[in-house]
Amino acid sequence: SLGNFAFFPYASCPGDDLNRCIYPKKARKVSYQASSIQSAPGYFALTLSSGVTTDMTTAQHTSLFRFKFPVAGNGTQSPVLLLDLTDLSDSRQDNATISVDAKTGRMTGSARFLPSFGSGNWVGYFCADFTGANIRDNGIFVNSRASADVKDLKISRSINGYPLPGGGFIRFTSSPSDGILARIAVSLISSEQACKSAEAEIPGFDFDSTRKIAEDAWRVKLNPIKVSRTGVNDSLITNFYSGIYRTMVNPQNYTGENPKWSSSEPYFDSFYCLWDSFRSQLPFLTIIDPNGLTQMIRAMIDIYEHEGWLPDCRMSLCKGYTQGGSNADTILTDAYIKGLTGGIDWNKGYEAVIKDAEVEPYDWSNEGRGGLDSWKSLGYIPTQDFDYKGFGTMTRSVSRTLEYAYNDFCIAQMAKGLGKENDVEKYQSRSSNWRNLYNRDQKSFLLTGGADTGFTGFFQGKFLNGTWYTQDPLWCSNIDPNTNRVCSLQNTGQETFESSLWEYGFYVPGDQAGLISLYGGPTAFVKRLDYLHDTNITYIGNEPSFLTVFQYHYAGRPALSTLRSHFYIPRFFAPTHDGLPGNDDSGAMGSFVAMSMMGLFPNPGQDVYLITPPFFESVSIKSPLTGKTAVIRNTNYDPSYQAIYIQSATLNGEPYTKNWIDHSFFTEGKELVLTLGRNESTWGTRVEDLPPSLSEYVGFNGTAYGTVASKFKRWDVARARVGSVRKHEMSGYMG
């Protein structure tokens, strides 16, 4: 989505004739020189095959482009810049406009676009100015022709499913060696506001100064985390900080650019989507950018105040599609229990999450939850539910049940902090509704060859009358050979969203002890979790897989979590062109990398970080709230990653045996020292060392369960991926 109001450069039009330049976007496209790309925070550059070199930098609402043109054979040329009324997905609707000032060349206008994963539409405005050479002429283009005599254009989309080409052009008398600069600002309010932003943010078209300001802003954001480079491959450093960088791209601060209501609260957009970001991206910002996250929470509550519901997905002022639960409930709870204040009205926030839990919206495909009558009366979302109060895609009954249950668990945590004891009991009780979809007799057979996986008991869809639906546990998994199976939001989708019953079988974040007991105890749980990963059922390129990497902690096997995270990083996450296993989803993948390599992974909605050794000798994190610096230090650090198992630990100099830590570690600036070795130890394996859970842990004998050394070889030769998704093995990397 986005990519609105794009520029396109020509060194000149053939024969110096405007009408011999090509204007339609698909027809004029050219390739770029792959080796020319330069990319850094606040800067991007490339060279087109036409020889035009472009680099760009940015301010808050304004971008600055610099175009350098190849010298013509006769030494004279008139470069042309087009401003296209377009976006990346060609979603422009009717009545786009552009006006060109004949004297100054300033271009202003607007267009209506569609969101990429939501309902409704939105209007963007722009203001573009140019400098660096004298203006020869300017005007508008439409379809395949341009005119310097016409300065204003209003254009429709047309009837052919693709927007008609249209926009403005400006032609210059010369092509100076230091380039032509184009400054463009966007606004969601008006072109006048866009012009004010441009003039305030980049008043003098100073490219180097603008770039430095952008770079300095990024340095401030990245500064809280520092790592030791001792013995570490540079690619891992790049991988780590690139992950951190990507966590801060979305959500975006649109304060002052909200045309829908007036408010003194911040306005953030591009919550895209919370189903992706609640698991690790936003919890990561709680650590390194708590002030920014505080503003995001306030913005979410303000959206509730004015639109009636917390957002679950939002982009460009539009409501996005809900993929599962009401995950803003988890995000608000996570921020609340970790002590964020900063002007947040937590009573209003609690009111908002209670509405998610109790009131069904008319359009629950965009907000809140559906099927609440069944949720309250039956204790689950039925397959093919009868729901006449609200409307959405009648699929995903299993994944919605599991997510609603955890949303209610989170609400109970928030209620406890606010002293609402009756609500604590109510929502803790509902948080156990996941048990109602457990079919203890459900077996699982491989979809290719039909071999028995050896596991019985899975969550399964259930009809209103209590009889079971029959979704195969491996449908929609990474080893499902049916590439045509629908596993997303379509009406023909399955009862799980973008994943299998196998993987959703581990999604009980609030009651891992209860789940472990249901699966037959810690040994059986570990065996099942191993099978999920070892046979490639899970897809690490999608967010439901994230927590499964670290759930061994709950079974008293934190060493296996460590081993598993080293299996996935850098095999599937690397600073290469194909270095992500799936869509980054607004920094979700980046945060998985950052928190895994940092050695503290969250269970969002709980004051819990699961401890694994950092990928570096030491990591320090300075709290932007308190100014105190937390440190994680590895003793016996091995950059070959053979000695990756915690043998013992101290916290502020005192022995520490828990395999998890809480948020005060960051705000109080504590020091965690981990002594490492080559073999699994008993550290973090006792019941009293395990993370909190709604149920009590049973079936533990207080010792580690077996050894993990033999797994290295087996995992090293495992298929990285299956089907049409590319393999990504990094040769020579062990662990």
From TrEMBL:
Q: Which residues form the Glycosyl hydrolase family 92 N-terminal domain?
A: 1-187
Please state what the protein is called.
Glycosyl hydrolase family 92-domain-containing protein
Q: Name a biological process GO annotation.
A: glycoprotein catabolic process
Q: Which InterPro entries match?
A: 6-hairpin_glycosidase_sf (IPR008928), GH-type_carb-bd (IPR014718), GH92_a_mannosidase_put (IPR005887), GH92_N (IPR041371), Glyco_hydro_92 (IPR012939), PNGase (IPR050883)
The reply on keyword RNA-binding is: no
Is the DNA repair keyword given for this protein? no
Boundaries of each Glycosyl hydrolase family domain copy?
A: 193-677
Q: Name one GO cellular component term.
A: cytosol
